[in-house]
Structures are given as structure tokens and as C-alpha cells.
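Record format v2
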Amino acid sequence: MITISSPMQQDNIKELLSNYKEDDVTFTFSKKEGIKLFFEVTGNPADAVIKAKELIKNTTWGKVLYFQAQVVS
Amino acid sequence: MNTIVNFIEKKFLPVAVVIGSQKHLLALRDAFINLMPLTMAGSFAVLLNALLRDIPNTYLGTGNVITTFPLVSWIISLNGIVWGGTLAVMGIMLSITLGYTIAKSYDVSKVAGAIVSLSAYLMGLPQSASTTTTLTLSDVLPANIADMIQASGATIATADGVSTITVTGSAWGFFNFSGYFGAAGMFTVILFSFISVIIFAKLMKKNITIKLPESVPPAVSRAFSAIIPGVISLYGSAIIYFLLKQSWALGSQPVSDWITEHIQQPLLGISQGYGSVFIIVLLVHLLWFFGLHGTNIMGAVLNSTYGVAQLQNLAAYESGAEIPYKWVSGSFEAFVWPGGAGVTIALIASILIFSKRADYKMVGKLGLGPGLFNINEPIMFGIPVVLNPLLIVPFILAPLATATISYFATIWGLVSPVVISVPWVMPVFLSGFLATAGDWRSLVLTAVNMAVAFAIWVPFIIAANGVDSPSDN
């Protein structure tokens, strides 16, 4: 499981990651706690964190976001 | 807080997105970032010479045992060589990186963009040098000889029984290296890079190019396709230089000097005011607090003003000239937000000493290591500080306080201005000390800043002891 901590654009982040359907990793939104969004992931969680950051930063709104992505056990 | 967040998402985020993703501002920001290897190498060279030459010369006198030691003197010379290819030519390097990043933003040939940008800058510089020599004779020159010499262009004056000959020689093919190759002409670089490369890029996108058959190798074809846009953009730049030179405003002043005097210096002058520093610190921290990337959004503004001022301070320090600017980009990192935005190193200290919350103490311990190197993401999202109404006041007040103290300490001469670019991960105390080229008073300033920031954070950490975790809100 991974978390994305971002006070802004939470709906966009959920949609972006949930709609990413490639073989390397998939994201399934699990729950929200404050600014933290929890996602169940397939594949290596560390790779999922890297992919999530890449996907978010490649959007126009993601370039200006201050967010954190990390693996949670 | 939700209402405020919704308001910011609806009203402010689109503006932040426009600013933060505007391709020209991004190109400008990236151009400065691409100069980092040169900036750091040059800063390291200047810093090393500060430690090996300037500080010993100051405290031990010139010709002291440290600077005259063979290995040390070799290192000092070596640093001079490094400086000559880095900080001394930052203007030229910026013209290359900026042309590259602008072309990249338009998705056209990046190398061609870099070349066009460099050419557009160089063509506007004075390219001749002149020198005047006066020779005083011991007698009066005979009239026929004086006439011959004057016919060649020299001036002869006779007074008190002696003649003086004054000769002015000039030749084409010289650049004023220190005047135009370094940081002094950066606004001219920025202006003509944008003008020339945007013209070039738009013509390339419109396919106003020479098209070669498919059988021609791609490298050759790419080079040929850039010919027409390159010629037009360079002639466009030349026409602007020509028209500016003809205008009454410039007189005989070179275009670059006019831009430096009438645009660069006034803008950098505005950046030196306390109001500008206050607004920058406030804006950056508000952005961080609401989950927007403060330095990404403000990067282009910070780099093109305070970043240029930093480079000019560096050049002045190296040449022994008066330091032109009191407040530069490195001043923020060294003194305003050591430990990260919000002076979070003071937050960590207050948590470890005063917090009774297990979650805070755990995050504080985890955040201490990175925090010593100004990486505060663990603490910002771990507490969290981001969007935490309990902590917004100290998060904004602490850096405003450190900025105010540091600004006036610098203006009043209590501490030297920042002159050296230091990596942003340099630990607290060391950062300010190195950035001011070894001014011991920076250690005192940093200690005062830490104490004030700590005093601001403590009451809020104590108040948080009796409050539920912000993640429950």
C-alpha cells in the first residue's frame, strides 16, 4: 500500500492513479485520512511510489503541487 | 479550513498552475538550474580561495605562511583557472542554456536554439578595444616632427618647456570580458535569448524551412531546416540592436549597458527592499502551507532577480570589488529558512523538548536526520504541518522573523552579505558561514535566528499537546 499526501487536487489524484492501467503497476483507492490518500497497489510498492510521483508531476496541475508519496506497511 | 482549501483550489490554484507551468518561465527557471554544475564549481573555487587566501590574508597579512606554502598557492591558482571558465562567463553560459530550454519548450532543435541565442547576445556587444597612452618628453618637439606625428592621429601638447604626446589606439576583435561575459549582462542575455529563439521557434513550427529529400541524412536535414529561421531570427535581433543604437535614448552607450543601467539595476534594486523580501517569504510559505510548491512557482522570479544578484555578488567578491547587493538568493537558504521552509529545524527541536504527543515525537525523531540537511518533507507531511490550522501561525511567523532579523543585520553591516552559492542541503550554521565566505558573525546571526524561531514554535507545540491529531479533522 502507498499513500499520497496532498491537501489539493485529491479528486484529480484519485482519478489519475485509478485510471492508470499498465502492466507495471495499478492503483486502487482505499481510503482517505485528512490529507493522506491510501492506495492498494499491485507490484512493488517502491516502484508504485515512483510511478505515482511521475504521473502526478507530468500533469499541468501536478507541477505546482507539494505532495509526498510513500510506502506504508 | 475546508472552505479555505476549496477557495484556494478554485481561485488560486489555476493561477498557480498558469505561473508554474508557463513554458517561458519554466524555460528561464530550467536555464538557471542547468547552470548548477558551473555555479557550484565556481562557488567551490571561490570558497576554497576564501579559506586558503582571503581569510589568512585578512587575519595574518599578505605573504603569510599559509598562502605562500607551495601546495596552497598551486591550489589558489587552480581555483583561478576554474573561476575563469565558470563564474567569469556565466552570462555566456546562460545565453546557451536559455536558448536550449526555450527551444526545448517549443519542441524545436535545442542545439540550434542555443547557438542562435548565443549569437544574438554576442552580436550586440562592443567588439573593439581602445587604449590611450601619454608620453612626456624631456624637450620640446621641433614643429615639423610634431606636424608629422599629429598627422598620424596623435595629439601633442607643449607646456613648461616639454612636449607630451597622447596616442589613442583601437582595434576590432576584443570583448570586454569582465563587463559582458559574466553576470553583469544577464538581463540583456535573457531579453535577446527570448526574442531570437522565439522568432526561430515560431518559424520552425510554421515550417518556414528548407526541405531536403528523404535520402539526405537526418542530421544534415535538421541543420538545413534551421537555416531560414536562424537567419531571420538573427537579423531580427540585429535590427533591434541597430534601431536601439540609433535612438536618442542610448546616445553612444552600448545596448547591453543601457539595459543593465535602466532595466536590470532598477529591478534588482526593487528586490533589495525589505518589502520585497517580506512579500517573497510570506508568499512562498503560504504556498507551501496550502500544498503548493513555493519555490517551483516562484522560481523564475527568484532566479532572475535574486539569482542574478547572487552571481554578481560572487563576481564582485572574487575580484575584490565592493559587494553590490545585500540580499540574494542564497540569503534565503542561509538565514531565512534553515532546516527547510518554516524553519522546521526549530520545530523539530521544540517537539523533541516540549511535545508530549507520541505521534509528534516519532515524526520529530524521524525528521531530525533529514532536517539537519534542510530536507523537511517528513516533518511537513508527517505531523502534518501542511494544512494544519494549529501550526499555520508559527510556520509563517518564524521565517518572517528570521527574514526580518537577517535582512536588517545585513543592511546595517552586522553581518556580511551572502556572496557564495552553497548547496541547499548544507547544514545549518555551516550554510551561513560558508555563504558569507567565512564571516564568523553569521554564526551569531544563525544562533539568534534559531533561538527566535524556537521561541515562536514552542507555544504552539505545547498547545498541540492537548489537541487531537490534525488528521482527524
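Residues 2-71 of chain A form a domain with the Alpha-Beta Plaits fold (CATH 3.30.70).
Chain A has two helices and four strands.
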